[in-house]
Amino acid sequence: MKTPMWLVVVCLAASLPTQAQTFKPIELKDQELATLRGRYVMPGRVISFGIVMTSTWQNANGEVIGATSSMQIQQSTIKPQFYVSMINEKGDGSARSQGTGTVTGGSGLNSTEGVTQVVRAAGDHNTAYNNVEINVTKASQAPATQQQGQALAAGSTLVGANGAGSLSVSSTGTGVQLNIVGNNNQGSTVQRLAQGGLMQNTTLLGGGNQVNNLTSFNVVLRDNATTGSLSGNLDQLKGLRTQGF
Q1: Residue 171 falls inside a structural domain
Q2: Per-residue b or e along 69-78, where b marks 16 or more CB atoms closer than 10 Å to that residue's CB
Q3: CA-to-CA distance for 64 and 57, rounded, in angstroms?
Q4: Alpha helices of the chain — where are they, by DSSP H?
Q5: N or C: which end of the chain has fewer CB within 10 A?
Q6: Which domain holds residue 197?
């Protein structure tokens, strides 16, 4: 038995609401958002954002060369700026032998994306440490700004040297880079934050060296965000685009 077409139309019409209703999005709870891959916060919640990059090289006689590059952005920040503090520590002065190790290849490391951490060793009794930290805290107001060191202008390079090696900290259109070359062919290390990626790459050719690369991202969220604060944003972050981030 065939159902009359008019009966089908009547049934469909009865199932529709009498008035058109505007679609209303459902707000997800914090517990549900916490299970999602990728997190977000409203712009007004971020009241401080900072980056700290530190690279150090200690040779076998205890002499240390390195630097710390840091930047902190808040609502009062006019222009994002990295500041560099040099690290220079004396050792015991003992003579050390020339590094004789050889490491080949690795050209593809310059084209990696995201976070890349590499240690290649061709010597003995070396220690290498690469680490990335993301620290998120809450506060009622942004922490006091305490920028230390020398300002690193865009396109400039700061250099240093001692018995452990030579250091350069540069800021270009592609980001910020800390580079250390150990004396006596002991090796080299580079830490670079640029184009949405982070590289920590250490090559050890001698012996008895200790190398550390650390990058820390520090975010402070407003503890009790109000409706007014949610409409704000950190326009200062846009300034990072000119530095390649």
Answers
A1: yes
A2: bbbbbbeebe
A3: 6
A4: 5-15, 30-33, 227-230
A5: N
A6: 44-90+114-233
Residue in this structure with the two tokens 């990072």, named with its chain if needed: 240
- Does residue 230 sit in helix, strand or coil? helix
Question: Structure tokens of 224?
Answer: 């009790």
- Is residue 1 a part of any domain in this protein? no
H/E run at residue 115: strand 115-121
Tokens read off for 164? 């452990």
In single-letter form, the type of residue at position 230 comes to: L
**Nearest one of 173, 60, 75 to 124, comparing CA atoms:** 60
In a domain, 22, yes or no: no
Q: What is the pLDDT along the chain (245 residues), one digit of tens a residue?
A: 455 544 444 444 444 444 444 545 667 677 776 666 555 666 678 889 999 999 999 999 999 999 999 999 888 888 888 999 999 999 887 767 788 888 988 888 888 888 999 999 999 999 999 999 999 999 888 888 777 899 999 899 999 999 999 999 999 877 899 999 999 999 999 999 998 899 999 999 999 999 999 999 999 998 865 544 444 444 555 555 665 55
How many domains are contained in the chain? 1
Pairing of strands 150-152, 82-89: antiparallel
